[in-house]
Amino acid sequence: MSVVALVPAAGRGERLGAAVPKALVELDGESLLVHAVRGLWASGCVHHVVVAAPPNQIDVVTAALSSLGAAVTVVSGGAERTESVWLALQAAVAEVPDTEVVLVHDAARAFTPPAMIRSVVEAVRAGAPAVVPVLPLADTVKQVDADGRVLATVDRASLRAVQTPQGFERGVLVRAHEAAAKAALGATDDAGLVERLGEPVLTVAGHTDAMKITTPFDLAVATALLTHRGRL
Ligand SMILES: Nc1ccn([C@@H]2O[C@H](COP(=O)(O)OP(=O)(O)OP(=O)(O)O)[C@@H](O)[C@H]2O)c(=O)n1
Ligand SMILES: C[C@](O)(CO)[C@H](O)COP(=O)(O)O
Questions:
Q1: Which pathway is recorded for this entry (predicted)?
Q2: Segment (H or E) for 100
Q3: CA 103 → CA 54, 159, 203, distances in Å?
Q4: Which ligand sits closest to the CA of 13?
């Protein structure tokens, strides 16, 4: 029974503002996408990877990933993240029929520790239909109105920042995305679609290294992280 990782990598990276799509931005001579797929493969628990790439970069992405020795399929991504995941999920189901566990992992979280990836897969294998890695919040959180006036201080004790990879029992993720596609609904993460089905979503411990590279500041932090940690 296989574990397939879907890697949405088709975003433009507007907040980063690089000359190329964010997943193709290079650190230490390799794109964020290559770093991310290497981490998934290094976890030792992923059997196949499906990447949703920028539609005009399929050949570039396929060539860049070929050196990793991983089983990878590259498909065209969509206009929104949810659509990119759905396209990759359909390809995964067609290509790897015995898929049991599906991970959804942002290319932008390029330096996620393999041990964290394994903990997500183990939680799904132990019976959780959906699993998300989370971190507690470090800052005080305020709710504000449209003018920026503070309405309330939110109790952060029950709040968590959510990372990827998010792990799913395959049937649950397919049902969640079918329902979203039918209703033309998006979500900022895949677990959000599963929540709409009324299915439980469990959490496991996230890791600071699984930070999402969104802005130039994040890229500077990731550069320091890679220098400190080295390639896997
Ligand atoms: N149409 C899209 C949009 C996003 N993504 C992917 O979803 C992940 C998380 O998205 P984010 O980090 O927000 O990336 P972008 O959408 O590229 O960023 P921005 O909003 O700054 O343009 C990224 O790996 C991104 O490539 C995708 O596959 N398809
Ligand atoms: C999926 C995600 O990484 C979980 O934190 C995040 O929601 C994606 O961010 P985006 O900026 O909404 O694409």
A1: Isoprenoid biosynthesis; isopentenyl diphosphate biosynthesis via DXP pathway; isopentenyl diphosphate from 1-deoxy-D-xylulose 5-phosphate: step 2/6
A2: strand 99-104
A3: 20, 23, 14
A4: 1
